[in-house]
Amino acid sequence: MKKFYSIAIDGPAASGKSTAAKGVAKRLHFLYIDTGAMYRAFTYHMLENNLEPKSEEDAKTLLPSLSLKEDKEGHIYLNGKDVSSEVRSLEVTNNVSYACAHLSVREKLVALQQEMAKSENVVMDGRDIGTVVLPEADLKIYQIASVDARAKRRCDEFVSQGLKVTYEEIKQDLIRRDYIDSHREHSPLKPAADAIVLDTSFMSIEEEIEAIIKLFYKKVGDLWNNTEK
Ligand code: CDP
Question: Helices 17-28 and 205-225, interaxial angle, to 10°?
């Protein structure tokens, strides 16, 4: 049976995971899967149905008919509709850590994520990829950066999109989400025992991508070189 390779990248909010993961996937010709976008899309779905993200009963009403798909360009489709820009809204960001903490939501989305990685080489980023979704991943990275570096990156990203936000608001949101994500009962944010911690506070995106690719080659070595690509 053909072996499919997987790279798991976890870490706190705005640590640059998705930009680095996208770059690594592009260089290695792997599929990039943004699991945060899936939890964001589900949260958007709850809000558009006037449901309460903190209520698991409310969340459960949407799970049986839920369809989430990501394409190679990084778009996310909720029940067939492209919601890539809607999922980045402030309202979704403010609620996602509540909607994604329910066990039933996690079970459903983790199963979808595992299915996606079954027949492709993947780079997947999130909070529980190395610990829960892909415990057998070939390489696990736990990407960290100081809260100031992360707030600055997210602030620059929003400002370049023409959004009006203050550095302090963003910083407080990151601290709040990291707290909820790492203290929840199911799949809390934490490094897998065998993850390599990468501090990117002073690294450029290119340096991050290069570092992850080097670690991947070091980890899988000859196995990868002899794989039919
Ligand atoms: O881009 P950013 O770091 O702000 O967040 P994201 O990766 O889009 O994830 C948004 C939220 O989804 C996180 O704050 C977590 O609450 C949740 N999430 C999760 O619980 N598990 C994952 N595998 C991915 C995201």
Answer: 40
